[in-house]
User: Fold this.
Amino acid sequence: MNYRHPQLRQRLAAEYVLGTLHGRARVRFARLAYADAEIRSAVREWEARLLPFAEELPPVKPPARVWQAIATRLFPEARASRGWLGGIAFWRGFALAASIAVIALGVMLLVPRYTAPGESYVALLADDQSHPALYVSAARSGRLLSVKAVAPIALPGDRAMELWALPQQGPPRSLGLVGARGTTVVTLQASADTTLAAVPAMAISIEPTGGSPTGLPTGPVVYKGTVVKVW
Amino acid sequence: MASSADRSAQLAELLARIALRDQAAFARLYDLTSAHLYAAALRILQRPAWAEEVLQESFVNVWQRADTYAAAKSQPLTWLTSIVRNRALDWLRRPDPDTVDINDEEHPVVIADERPDPLEALLAGADARNVRGCLDTLEAQQQQSIAPAFYHGLTHSELARHLRQPLGTVKAWVRRGLEKLQRCLEAA
Assistant:
């Protein structure tokens, strides 16, 4: 069969989405769609046409055990607690950030001649296993954000790390690209106070060189951490 | 009440956060969409245990693949629905399913009232209204074959039995119905 024939492609895409394409034909078509952008876009068009039907169905609340099963599979470390804020992962992250804040304070108190950072925002970005990777700090009234790699990070040559502010409200905001070793200084559009006051967390995603093409994270998120106000 | 566009923007934002491994956003997405998606799975699979399994698999998949949403260029609910429907259809078409007989007395096909409740009708938005309008322009036979295929995941031969018509006839109804639907939607 010639799948490249536009009419046939349309018909198969329609029947795939409708559900009448089945058996080996369905499997074969799904495999073709995976490899062929034109088939994929025909499927997408038919999904846009037909799937709103499914959205018209009267909703049926699934039993609570479905969510419990999902959460147990994906977030075993939070199993002990039902609430998100009560989750062990949250407190682990919080404890980490808090200890960094204590260290930062300690540095300020113990080294009087250290050019006192004064009131600052700090964050320690760590991986899934809470291994710290990047230390972020910015003077409260300043516009410079310093990002220090705790140890050199292995990164493919065609990839970059992008730093994101995760505000309480609204989508992630890019703060800029950061280096995989040493310290990167990012210039903020406005003071750290303006930029970070309502930002409880930051994250690093892996993006193409030059940064995310969409303005939102497109690659995997590798590090994340809580933003702490030190004052 | 949030408009359809507001709701889409909200879901897209949640997916962006989920791509950043935001568990709270994931829980919120589940709260907002699981009842719609469960209804879609249940309609195809008929058995709550299967629909629960498919819903669980689908959300695990959403967590793992949220970073591919942006590239899909779909409405968020359409993207989520496609994940659930494809899993449900694959489940139904497993190589060796334990007897899926839609006329099974023990598991009667529950064809509930197809009309959405008024709240849901409002939520359904312009896309659904367009499709609904176009569906209304189809001939009765075309409608009768497309709606059960879509809602219940019936194959051509199951449809033929359901409608008590020869297989070739039913296939032609489905094909012509889909072509007409496409023309109507492109004209809309």
Chain B touches chain A through 76 residues (CB under 8 Å). The domain at 1-114 of chain B is CATH 1.10.1740.10 (Rna Polymerase Sigma Factor; Chain: A). Chain B has two domains: 1-114, 116-188.
